[in-house]
Amino acid sequence: MRSHTQPLSYRLIVPNGYPESPDALPLVLDSPHSGTDYPPDFAPAVAHGVLRTAEDTWVADLWDGALEQGVPMLAARFPRSYIDANRACEEIDPQLLDQPWPTPLPDSAKVRLGKGLIWRMLDDGTPLYDRKLSHEEVHHRIQACWQPYHRALDELLSAAQARFGKVWHINCHSMPSVAGAYATDKPGLVHPDFVLGDRDGSTSDPAFREMVAQWLRARGYEVGVNDPYKGVEIVRRAGNPAAGRHSLQLEINRKLYMDETTLRPNEGYARLREDLRLLVAAIGQWTREQL
Ligand SMILES: [Zn+2]
Questions:
Q1: I want to staple 85 with a disulfide (CB 3.0 to 4.6 A). Which of 26, 32, 119, 126 is the partner?
Q2: Is residue 185 predicted with pLDDT exceeding 80?
Q3: What's the 148 CA to ligand 1 centre distance in angstroms?
């Protein structure tokens, strides 16, 4: 195993010799929202415990059985509430800034929900700041966190594709058991066990999501597809099925593995971790058949 870290940005855990080693798989995982290193310049107006509800806590750890099977994992170190790697760099919320942004900002449904590149509020509507942010703060978060993370993911996918010709990518997330008031456009929705998103088949050949959905359903899980989570910026950037890059967002219901208030692993954690290890094995075999 090789391990690389970028101080604020990420941990990259790569199997020895990847992707040239004989047991390497054409599969890459990333976890953009499980980071827990809260930078000192964050200065939010929300208590730490409340802030942590924005994390996909434990997600990178839940998938750690992938490494021994020849699959690398890129995991953010910065917390999602500091800057959200699953947004476009331009999704800046003008209401957060102490002066107007110098270039026009795109209309963004996520910004309207208060969940742009830098969040204005948590899922329940709690404001994150009692101050405005400077342009320097926004630029710093992009340069120290967002850019190195995306660069590392691009390099990992390119290296795997250079070896295998094709690459499959799972963008790993978690979701609350019930959607918060400002989490999505479906507040109060009770979530299934898993939601797979490939932006309606545009970021991956649908055969990938169907293989994963069928495997999970056979294990007794309830699986949604492209609803209420279609996949966002990371799969949009990473996926290009016509060019052999297949990118799938995978949301796990947090009730399966942790207490959603204390964030401590619950009695389901070990079973889920083992199921994800077996899922990686099944995907690994399936991807080899697609080469
Ligand atoms: Zn997430």
A1: 32
A2: no
A3: 18
For the chain, what percentages of helix, strand and coil (3-state, to nearest 5) are there?
35, 20, 45
Q: Which CATH architecture has domain 2-290?
A: 3-Layer(aba) Sandwich (3.40)
The label of the residue with tokens 């690398």 reads 72
- The domain spans of the chain are 2-290
Question: Which conformational region is residue 168 in: left (phi greater than 0), alpha (psi within -120 to 50 degrees), or beta?
Answer: beta
* pLDDT tens-digit map of 89-114: 999 999 999 999 999 999 999 999 99
Q: pLDDT confidence of 3, banded at 50, 70, 90? A: confident
For residue 184, pLDDT over 80 is answered with no
Q: CA nearest 138: which of 151, 125, 113, 120?
A: 120
Distances (CA, A) of 169 to 71, 139, 154, 231, 244: 10, 28, 11, 12, 11
Cα angle at 209 between 206 and 211, to 5 degrees? Answer: 105
Q: pLDDT per residue over 165-177, tens digit each? A: 999 999 999 999 9
Burial of 20 (0-12, 13-18, 19+ CB in 10 A): exposed
- Residues lying with their CB under 5 A of ligand 1, a single-atom ion: 33, 56, 173
- pTM (predicted TM-score): 0.97
CA of 20 to the centre of ligand 1 (A): 30
